Amino acid sequence: MTEEKIVICADPAYPLNGMLTLPDDLSEKVPAVVFVHGSGSSNMDEKIYKITPFRDLAHGLASRGIASVRYDKRSFVHPLKLLRAAKGRLTVKEETIDDAIAAAELLRSDARIDPDRVFIVGHSMGGMLAPRIDADGGNFRGLVIMAGTPRKLEEVVLDQLAATEKTVPSLLRGIFKKQAAKYEKLFDGLYDLTDEEAMKKQFGGGMTLYYFKEMGQRQTAEALQACQKPMLILQGEKDVQVSAERDFALYKKLLSDREDVQFRLYEGLSHAFVPAIYGTIDKAAKEFKVEQHIGDAVLDDIADFIRRQ
């Protein structure tokens, strides 16, 4: 493979360093993917301690004849500037969607890429947003959703708090119970708030409830069902951020009548699609401090899906 430094610039105020990864054989135009991050701020590799999911995927897919673009997330490079400019109105559009669309356009403008075979690979919240990104201008050939969920973001936040409460020592459970109650109260009546009211209520990290309200009003489940593109939906069986029992099962329920949607559940894999070590949410950070890499089973499934479209 070869790698070329690029810059994604959906907005001139927020240039983002990135990497175009190309397979060795460019005798004909090749398919390509855009990687879209999960929640929080991440670099182009989606690095979590010693885990680098997007770099693993980029290199693995290049060895299978598929190009890719990955780039630093806007909230990673320009966090304070982004929040100040938003003035309480920050949404996933400015944080994620606009840059993913710009990355897709960059790929289509490259003479080495087949412009009709550009795909999105969204991980975690990137997977949640993949159908919306496609509808809002991504215009992808197909969607790969890794460890996503069709549920609303605030539901997932509350579930994660509840799961953490069950795993911590008993002396700390009262603290987590109070925190969960605080957020339950904060989210209660979210969609009855006006936009202005939601912008005044702080969630944390500079984000307001407007971030959740705007995202929830463009419901993931509705965008998913409206999307008529082929999809590959992947889930680690030991994922503790989203679950096979609830989230993966809901994808299957919503899309059960679609012959162009494939589902893959990987035994023993975590949210990052590497082997789970502890399998509990309270030790997720500790788990990601052990260097591991995405294996051939996941890479082969993604590559096979792309080749068939």
What does this structure look like?
- The protein is an alpha/beta fold.
- It has a single domain (2-152, 219-307), classed as 3-Layer(aba) Sandwich (Rossmann fold).
- The protein is 44% helix and 19% strand.
- It has an 8-stranded mixed β-sheet with strand order 1-2-4-3-5-6-9-10, sandwiched between helices. Strands 7-8 form a two-stranded antiparallel sheet.
- Helix 4 (92-108) crosses helix 5 (125-138), helix 5 packs across helix 10 (220-226) and helix 6 packs antiparallel against helix 7.
- The longest helix has 18 residues, at 170-187.
- The chain is globular and about 60 Å long.
- The two termini are 22 Å apart.
- The mean pLDDT is 94.
Helix share of residues? 40-55%
Q: What about the largest sheet?
A: 8 strands, mixed
The gyration radius over C-alpha positions equals 19 Å
**What structural class do the secondary elements suggest?**
alpha/beta
**CATH class type:** Alpha Beta
Widest beta sheet: strand line-up: 1-2-4-3-5-6-9-10
CATH 2nd-level architecture = 3-Layer(aba) Sandwich
Number of extended strands? 10
Q: Mean pLDDT score, rounded?
A: 94
